Amino acid sequence: MADELVKFESKGHIAVFTLDRPKAMNAVSGQLSQAMGKYLDKFEADDNLWIGIICSSHPKVFCAGADLKAINKGEQIETPKGGFAGIVRYPRTKPLIAAVDGLALAGGLEIVLSCDLVVCSKKSQFGVPEVKRSLVPAAGGLFRLPRRLPQAIGMELLLTGDRLSSERAYQLGFVNYVTEDGKAFEGAMDLAKRIEVNAPLAVRQARNVAADTMLASDEEAWEASAKAMSYLVRTPDFFEGPRAFIEKRAPNWTGKKPSKL
Asked: How far apart are CA 149 and CA 158, in angstroms?
C-alpha cells in the first residue's frame, strides 16, 4: 500500500523493514506499529527469510520516538502482540539488525534495543531524553539500556537524558560497526550476508538461547543449550553441514524444521 508507514521487501534470505514516515521523523503512531507488527508476522512465518534489517527512509533520523500528537488525541500506538512500534515485546525468533543513520532517540532507541545487532553511521546519536519531559523510557529502555551498556553508563543516560555518540557507542560495545554517513544500511547488509551463509536454524537457536539465558542460572542455561542441540540434530541441515565439509563444497542449507518436535 502506498500509504503504509513501514515498507517491507526481501533480498534473498534477508528481510528489510524500512520506517517510512519521514515528514514526522518516523514518529511511532498506531498505524506504524500495526504495519511493523504485520510484517514481523510475515517475516517469522516465512521459512525462506532468515535475517531482518530495520532501517529508515529519513536521511538524518532513524526514529524520533512516539507520535505525541497521536497520543494527545488518545490514539493507541501499541499493538497487543508487539507493544510499542509493534516490535519491543514481539515474540521474535529470527535475528534483527538495526541500521541507524542519524538520530535514534526515545522510542527510536527502544526499537534499536529490540534488535540483536546494530550498525550505525558516524553521525548517529542515541539517547532517551524522556526525563527532560517528566517521562521515562517505558518501552524497554529502562531495563534494556543498562543491560546492553555498562550499567553505570546506561544509568547515566537514563538519568541525564544525554546522547551517546556513535564513537562512544562503538567503544562501549553497544554497536557492532560504525560506517561512513549514508552507509549504515550497506554495513548492515554486509553483516547480514555473513550470517546468511550459516545454517539458518542453528543461527536461530544460537540467537534465542543467548537472548533467553542472559539472566538465567547456569543450570537453566545448560538446559536451554541441550534443548537447542537436541532440536538441531533432528533437522536435515545438521547432516548437510558435515557432509559439505567432507565433500569440500559450500553447504546447501534448507532451513527445514524437524518433522516431529
From this structure: 11
pTM: 0.94
- The pLDDT > 70 percentage for the chain reads 98
Question: Is the Cβ–Cβ distance between 255 and 45 less than 8 Å?
Answer: no
Clarify whether 247 is annotated catalytic.
no
Catalytic residue among 110, 220, 223, 240: 110
Q: CA 131 to CA 120: how far, in whole Å? A: 25
| Residue labelled with grid coordinates 527532560 | 132
The answer to whether the CB of 58 falls within 8 A of the CB of 100 is no
* 105, 126 contact by CB (below 8 A): yes
Q: Is 130 a catalytic residue?
A: yes
Residue of 44, 75, 130, 219 marked active site: 130
DSSP string, 16-45: EEEE--GGGTT-B-HHHHHHHHHHHHHHHH
Burial of 187 (0-12, 13-18, 19+ CB in 10 A): buried
116 CB-near residues (< 8 Å, 6+ apart):
95, 96, 97, 207, 211
What tens digit of pLDDT does each residue of 62-106 get? 999 999 999 989 999 999 999 999 999 999 999 999 999 999 999
Report the distance separating Cα 129 and Cα 126, nearest Å. Answer: 10
User: Cell numbers of 94, please?
Assistant: 529470527
Identify the pLDDT of residue 186: 98
Q: What angle do CA 170, 134, 67 make, to 5 degrees?
A: 70
